[in-house]
Amino acid sequence: QVDAVRVYVNSSSENLQYPVLFVVRQQKGVLSWQVPLIFRGLYQRTYNYQEVSRTLCPSEPTPEAGPSDQIIFVDVASMAPFNIAYELLVTRLDNFQLETNKAFNFTASPSQPQYFLYKFPQDVDSVIIKVVSDVVYPCSVVSVQDIVCPVYDLDHNVEFNGVYQSMTKQAAITVQRKDFPGEQFFVVFVIKPEDYACGGSVPSSIHGNVNRTWNLQRMKNLQVTIVPSIKKSIYVQAMFFSFLSFLSFYLGSVVVAFVHYISTDMKLTVPFGCVSIVGSGIMTSSHPITASTPEGSSYGAIDESSSSGGRQLSSPERGLPAGSDTDSSVEEESDFDTMPEIESDKNVIRTKVFLYLSDLSRKDRRIVSKKYKIYFWNIITIAVFYALPVIQLVITYQTVVNVTGNQDICYYNFLCAHPLGVLSAFNNILSNVGHMLLGFLFLLIVLRRDILHRRAMEMKDVYTLDYGIPKHFGLFYAMGIALMMEGVLSACYHVCPNYSNFQFDTSFMYMIAGLCMLKLYQTRHPDINASAYSAYASFAVVICLAVLGVVFGKNDVWFWVIFSMIHVLASLALSTQIYYMGRFKIDGPDSDLGIFRRAAMVLYTDCIQQCSRPMYMDRMVLLIVGNLVNWSFAIFGLVYRPRDFASYILGIFICNLLLYLAFYIIMKLRSSEKLLPIPLFCIVATAVVWAAALYFFFQTLSSWEETPAESREKNRPCILLGFFDDHDVWHFLSAAALFFSFLVLLTLDDDLDAVRRDKIPVF
């Protein structure tokens, strides 16, 4: 048992020119202070205390010498030309050493800090120091320091040594035995003279003697409990759980693929009598099917007779030789459409009242496929250039935390932050493994479909060319890479989560939502979807707005006015392009007045005259609802100005994606199309898993919108295996939800593989 001595002094003097100086000399150190004791705050404010109580650095008896008496000298001095009364009291502390799993209550104030000793038990390698208080203020600091004298236990020096964090009602620090060679440490409790560091009010700037405050009552009752942390075996169990949980998805995918392969041999043929569905929506034919070439439409046509009542088939894709999906420097994406001049002119086709997929899938398949491959290669380039500086930055953040000991830099859930190596919260990083594993699995599934499609193309299968949704896999590959990168960047963010790097956790979520919307649109509009360059440029603009929102979005009204205007105008412009299938142009005379006259004419004819019955009713309904949703977001942002601007933009993306997906499924069912068992299962799984994931997402465990001390009030213990918290469960479930969402997009139209494209409606 270690003995400790506490010295209490009191002086009635308020003369700051002649303070009373106290110097305590011990065997291994000297401790000194003055009375009145002065603390300095903002705007040159001073807080003076006439009562001071300090704990002297204890001297532990050595095993060789055994217990012995310790001599302490207390020197009292003052330069005052008159007598000053003071009081001195020296007492022995009976409860200086803290015990494991035993709560201890005490009181502290700015001029009367406290610290206690803790020794690691033999079988404990890591402990969590839990400190709680019934009141929010006064603001306090909890520090863990090595057994070194002097102990830094005042507001102006508590940050000089060890690990520390600010506190209002709750604090938690994980301490490992390996960090303290002596297997013991001091737990120091300091009360700050002002509360602004913990989110309290900031003192106003007042000049004159009013800046001096005497004996401000800032006592705080605290309770400290030191409990053992988890053992190494829990780390192993958590890692096995994380990997095996998601590897089970691989096993499930293999089983589904095997069952699909076995059932292929017994699958009944479709009405054509010669076509069967081969795994994952790919068509093959058992013997050639002929079609007649329409006169005047020789582009890309094949001289074969049709088995469907002599119906004419014409597709530029059918004229391609097998294996022609090779890269070529001359096959670059172009706005020039090699289509027949009159009947097939895109301005005529795309403005028909009733459009079918054959009208929007007339371009050369090689060029279109190459166009969508650019999505894949570009996102890899973006990922490399984005991720490398992010990794470097978060490593620097973690190094700063480890070197300075300032745990207010990173917003962890300190009640469930399990360190490993240099990482302070390994569990928050490990839980992101699901995004990477499921993203890679999705790439494998897409690759399988791609290979089956290529094999069908090599067999010169006419049904692969003229039936079902055109198979372009570039966007799917990009979605898989985006899912993997979301896991990487989310893990990077959770190395040291804070206000400055939150965009790392959301950047690829924007891209995932955007790519999903593009893929959904591309399904029935393969010829007019956005290019990779314009899409990624748009994502770059969104990320720039997110950065500006983080910097200026807190209190600047002008930013929200500009952003809301951009949001509304962008919604209108995009709606116009979607409504007119990319063929809306305001052309007319060369004069500026002619342009405005043309704009007024378009507005009158298309918006006013056709208000009761638009030409494209389904598209109009979708766009009206979509614009109402986006305008509501713009008004909400302008009125409430949410501080979490990154999540605000992400909410806009997700709501638009869900709206479009719901519209697509409703229109699909309305068109007498059906949902096969696999996409139906994926839709149900997506809804269920997203609902569960969002429940855990809204269990806020920390918030960088507040001060570190206020954020710690939201900290909660682990809920899964004693290792993962609510946010880790969100990571697990959101990874699975995104994976199922991708499968919905991948399999949603498998029922159309036996349907002619000129029978598939566009919506």
TrEMBL record:
GO cellular component terms, A-Z: lysosome; plasma membrane
Region spans: Disordered: 291-337
InterPro entries tied to this protein: SID1_TM_fam
A molecular-function term among this protein's GO annotations: RNA transmembrane transporter activity
Broad class of the protein's primary localization: membrane
TM spans (from-to): 234-259, 375-395, 429-447, 475-496, 502-521, 533-552, 558-580, 620-639, 645-666, 678-698, 729-748
Superkingdom of source: Eukaryota
UniProt entry keywords in alphabetical sequence: Glycoprotein, Membrane, Signal, Transmembrane, Transmembrane helix
Protein's membrane topology: Multi-pass membrane protein
Family: Belongs to the SID1 family.
Protein name in UniProt: SID1 transmembrane family member 1
Provenance organism: Balearica regulorum gibbericeps (East African grey crowned-crane)
Lineage: Eukaryota, Metazoa, Chordata, Craniata, Vertebrata
